[in-house]
Amino acid sequence: MNVQYAKEVIELPAGSGGKAETLLMRLIRAGHYVDAPCGGKGTCGRCRVRFVSEAPQPTANERRLLTEEERSSGVRLACEVRVAEACSLQLPVSREQEIDVLVTADAADGAIPSRTVDEGIPGQTAGTIHGQRDCVAMHSREDAAKIWGHSGKKRCGAAVDIGTTTLAATLYDLTDRKRIAAASSVNHQRAYGADVLSRIQAANEGAAEKLRLSISRDIDALLAGLVADAGIPDDAVEELVIVGNTTMCHLLRGLSCAGLGAAPFTPEDLSLWEGSGAELALSDQWSVSVTILPGISAFVGADIVAGIYAMEMDREKNVLLLDIGTNGEMAAGGADGFLVTSAAAGPVFEGGNISCGVAGVPGAVTNLVLERDPAATGGIRTVELSTIAGETPIGLCGTGIIDAVGEAVRLGLIDENGTFEEPWFTDGMPVAEGRFRFRQEDVRQVQMGKAAIRAGIETLLAEYGGGDPEEILIAGGFGCRMDEEQAIRIGLFPEQFRGHITMIGNSALAGAQRYLLDDRTAAKQRLASITGHAQELSLAMHPKFNELYLDKMFFDTDR
Predict the structure, then answer these.
(1) Mind listing the pLDDT tens digit for each residue in 133-175?
(2) In a domain, 371, yes or no
(3) φ and ψ at 198, to 5 degrees?
(4) What span, in angstroms and rounded, lies between the C-alpha atoms of 409 and 489?
(5) Cα 335 from Cα 511, distance rounded (Å)
(6) pLDDT, tens only, 210-256
(7) pTM, full prediction
(8) d(CA 213, CA 478)
(9) Residue numbers of the domain that contains 72
(10) Which CATH number do you get for residue 65?
(11) Do 141 and 228 lie in a common domain?
(12) Residue 61 falls inside a structural domain
């Protein structure tokens, strides 16, 4: 794992919790972010820090997870260190503010069209919108000014998608309905763990307010970035629409997560919420009204509802929506209603729990092609490689991880059980001429993630009973970069999906954007209809899911 450390030295004062408190918790309390996908359990090795002097003796876990060179240079794991004394530290360089913003094709054009026809709006024409198809006619600035009662002051609204791993936000001029800024960042709650179960556990063990303030500060920072980029005053932002999974929405609202952590998994509230920024502990610099869109269940939240709403699935027939993220939310159905579920894939498809995994930052590898070459480093040559922003590769994001495993299958480097041949079992598979290596434990993480998604898909479709879907919409962190062939090769999707997949990017954010701009009464009615006609399928104890999960761990190496 290649880690660069900041030149800035952090002087951490002596702790008040004695040696019972880890350095990770001390750093969090002091306002410093350290990536800890495993939630401080000592299993991921990602919470590296460097002691400038007087590094404590390494623990057995640190000797296992850190190289000798790292240990001798003062690198330790923050979750393993228990020192109460003041210390001088360097933290890893973070590029979290450069995370690639994931928006739909509609939003990328700089404007979101109205998908509803209102005869009272001059010049609007009917049209069809779905995924990346053509848009209906836009209102003119003059017409919009008449409608909104424009007084000369810029009126803006923001849409925010709170993902478990990352946040994405867009800012709209409500007068001409155009996107004027976009921003994204890591979700700093990751310091408490990469998945929702870790966050729920932390909240239930007393960290609920810290988690709430963490996400509130993240939203504050996103809004500040948006207004700075747009060159507008803070008070121009009048409205905020938020989506996220049920856990993220509960934490933001300060609701108890006790019912989310154990059967029968009962949320405190799933309804559409309206209030002020102050009620969500946002900074008082934002005088905004806030709407949080409704969810369906403990594990199918406002993000998937927003996706259904944005993609107009409630007006279609037999469509499958897959949000390939940490929670693996999915919905099958159409105008007659939906069957929804979630398959906990973990953070693997967002770069988490992978030794060389990174979020969608500049330098993240999105796609690659490998070939055997005895003369190359480790016997593997990288033939083609694409990175975000074209920068020097620093690691693999979700689509790059899929490609890495797909290439290992194609080249026969791993068997059907997912086991590397030697020397790659011991040394890992080199990527980018050995700049980093994809290791055996990384393959295992992908196997668990892809098995959960694939088993969830097949169980959902079998229970829905509508046959093969006419269209498969892929949302989430993959954006539009996923290689369909590689996803099928590793068994993430079945063969019959070939040619029917449409990449739609961040459909949750698209839903928040649409709600921001649509007629409010009609929007609320549609959301109520979507949630009212959705049934949840629980996979936890479903015999078909558990059987398929084990089966889908394997790779088809005969393809």
Answers:
(1) 333 333 333 343 333 344 457 899 999 999 988 899 999 999 9
(2) yes
(3) -65, -40
(4) 8
(5) 17
(6) 999 999 999 999 999 999 999 999 999 999 999 999 999 999 999 99
(7) 0.81
(8) 28
(9) 10-93
(10) 3.10.20.30
(11) yes
(12) yes
